[in-house]
Amino acid sequence: MVLPAGAAERLAYYKAKDGVGVLAPRGWHCFGTYGSNGETLYVSAETISTADLFSTDWKGFVGPVIQISSLVGDTSGRFAVARTIARVFPTRKAFVQDVIAEGIEPANSFPFGPYAGDVLNYRSKDIVEFQTPADTEGLGTASRLQKNESPISGVAILFGEEPNLLQLCVRLSPESRDLARFIIRQAEREVADFSAHASSQE
C-alpha cells in the first residue's frame, strides 16, 4: 500500500519475530506474545510493562495503543474466534454452534448479534470494519483495551479454512486519529496477500 507522504512520515511498521505486524505511530513501544491460540502484537505510546501484561490483576491498556491478534480457529483460539463470529459474522454461525456443542464453555459466553454501540462497515462477508464509541463496550474492548473517553476503531477478518481470525483494535490520540484508516487498510491488505499466497500453494 502506498501511503501519502504526510502519513508515511508519521508511521512505522512494527512486527513481532515470526509474527504479525502492524503500522503504528513512529516512536511507540511494542511487545509480542504467542501461544497455541495464536499471536498478538501490542504497540503503545507508553512503555509496555510485561509484568502488567501477564498479570491476572491488570485491567488493560488505558492510553493510545494498537492491538493486532491472529487467532487460530482449530486450536484453543477457537473460543475467541467463535465469540467474534457470533457478534459480526452471521454466515459462520455453524462454527459457533460447533464450539458451543463441545461443552467446554457455556453458550452464554457466545452472545449472538452486534454490540449495541458499535458502528459496523462490512467490506465483505468475512471483513468488517468497526468503531466502538468512547466509554462503550464493543469489539474494540473485546481485547486488552479498556474503555475510556476515546473511541476505538479496527477491523475483524476471517481467513483460512478453520476459520482463523485477525482482529485489529486501534486507539489513537485526537491529533493522530487520521492515521487509523491507513493502519486498518494495511492490515486488510496483508491478510489478502497472505490468503492469496496460501491459495496459490494449494
SSE blueprint:
Blueprint: H1 5-8, E1 11-15, E2 21-25, E3 29-35, E4 38-44, H2 50-53, E5 65-71, H3 78-88, H4 93-101, E6 119-124, E7 127-132, E8 152-159, E9 164-171, H5 180-200
Antiparallel strand pairs: 1-2, 3-4, 4-5, 5-9, 6-7, 7-8, 8-9
Helix pairs in contact: 3-4
Describe this structure in words.
By secondary structure, this protein is of the alpha+beta class. It has helices at residues 5-8, 50-53, 78-88, 93-101, 180-200; strands spanning 11-15, 21-25, 29-35, 38-44, 65-71, 119-124, 127-132, 152-159, 164-171. The protein has one domain (5-75, 120-200). The protein has 5 helices and 9 strands, in the order αββββαβααββββα. The protein has a 7-stranded antiparallel sheet, with helices on both faces. A two-stranded antiparallel sheet has the order 1-2. The longest helix is centred in the last third of the chain and has 21 residues, at 180-200. The relative contact order is 0.16.
Please name the defining characteristics of this protein.
single chain; globular; 202 residues; 7-stranded antiparallel sheet; alpha+beta; 9 strands
β-strand percent reads: 25-35%
Count of DSSP helices? Answer: 5
Order of SSEs? HEEEEHEHHEEEEH
- Across the major sheet, the strand order is 3-4-5-9-8-7-6
Cα Rg = 16 Å
**What ranges have pLDDT less than 50 throughout 5 or more consecutive residues?**
none
Could you give a short account of the major beta sheet?
7 strands, antiparallel
What is the typical, i.e. mean, pLDDT?
Answer: 93
Helical residue percent band: 10-25%
Number of strands: 9
Distance between the termini: 26 Å
Shape: globular
> Number of domains in the coordinates?
1
Structural class determined from secondary elements: alpha+beta
